[in-house]
Amino acid sequence: MTTPLSKPGSKTNPATTPKVGIVSLGCPKALVDSERILTRLRAEGYDISPSYDGADVVLVNTCGFLDSAKKESLEAIGEAIKENGRVIVTGCMGVESDMIRQVHPDVLAVTGPHQYEQVVNAVHDAVPPVHDPFTDLVPPEGLRLTPRHYAYLKISEGCNNRCTFCIIPSLRGDLVSRPVVSVLREAEKLATAGVKELLVISQDTSAYGIDRKYAEEDWYGRKVKARFLDLCRELANFDVWVRLHYVYPYPHVDEVIPLMAEGRILPYLDIPFQHASPTVLKAMRRPAAQEKQLDRIRKWRQECPHLVLRSTFITGFPGETEEDFQFMLDWLKEAQLDRVGCFKYEPVDGAVANDLPGAVPEEVKQERWERFMETQKAISAERLQQKIGYTLGVIIDEVDEEGAIGRSYADAPEIDGNVFLNGETNVKPGDIVDVTIEHADEYDLWGSIERAE
Ligand code: SF4
Known about the structure:
Elements: E1 19-24, H1 28-43, E2 47-49, E3 57-62, H2 67-83, E4 87-91, H3 97-103, E5 109-110, H4 116-126, E6 150-154, E7 156-157, H5 168-172, E8 176-177, H6 180-192, E9 197-201, E10 216-219, E11 222-225, H7 228-235, E12 241-244, H8 257-261, E13 268-270, H9 278-284, H10 293-303, E14 308-315, H11 322-335, E15 339-344, H12 362-385, E16 391-400, E17 403-408, E18 419-422, E19 432-440, E20 445-449
This protein binds iron/sulfur cluster.
Iron/sulfur cluster binds near residues 159, 161, 162, 169 and 203.
């Protein structure tokens, strides 16, 4: 059975199984790449077409090793365009995207070698997969381990920073951001499946897109850049809570504060400061470690008074003096962060920090940790007291016969506090309700659901 071909450039939406043709050129490594791409597409329900005329889209996996191979690749692309019209180019020659488009302006997309996700996304764009609820083992939004009403949205892998206490870059490599349309498509599927809260995660969320040079893609007829601000703007359109984690305070983070002030994304920033003393931050080689951080926090709060800041810190880093530690405590009192976690420094196998001089004895680490937690506990308690009498939107996580437990915009799941709604049993997980706050302790709030008179 064949699906009629449409004109190049238009999107088909086959009611029947979509079919993909492939022309695989080059060496055995390229052949294996083609096999991987086809395996993935087959698993998603695509059929593989043996001929041009039976395919909804044709993939040309190119070789760019020698000039003669490039010539052959360009000819193969030309033939596929002539015979079918809807062509996606991938493989080694994909790195010369401009040249390919100059010769063949009608190609639908060009992706480079080993860019499996990008090429599969390009196929999705050209011919969307058909979800069959009776035969598909996996729902369109994928399988998740989180409750139905919230989901983590991972926007990149790896990290370009080299913090001395961390081995993630050596385990996972440098930053590789997902294409923006791939992230948005996943977010859209999650929102469609009923997810009410998206938790944006990565190793370095505000660095999103740097590695892709902020590549622009088409999303519902508009151009969207793979850039932190643009991503946040687009996520804000899904009408779900959007919470940003692992945001390093690079200067451009200032640009998302207005989105928070307008209520388009949650006014919540998870910034792992790790320390405040310039000497320790330097030894840690932390990204975006600026001396003017307190001024920026003040400015953010002027622009967005309800902004909640969460962070993590490390005490007892090698070389940390009592003076450094006291600097951090004073900073903490000034910064008035809402949610804070603190870890005692532990050497990680392979981390550069292990070789730094000035190891802090365990009992000193412990004593500093306790002082840190005491200081933050008082700050947290005071900030939560200020919420009494206010009405907050609360997302419900659990309900039993005694009542419900939820979270406000100020609380990420698992790591922050809760809002307890004693006696409120007439709600279900995922509901977002207005709650009047009546009581607070150091970490949690208590309240009742507001009801119309
Ligand atoms: S701790 Fe530093 S190096 Fe490690 S993942 Fe975070 S930013 Fe990257």
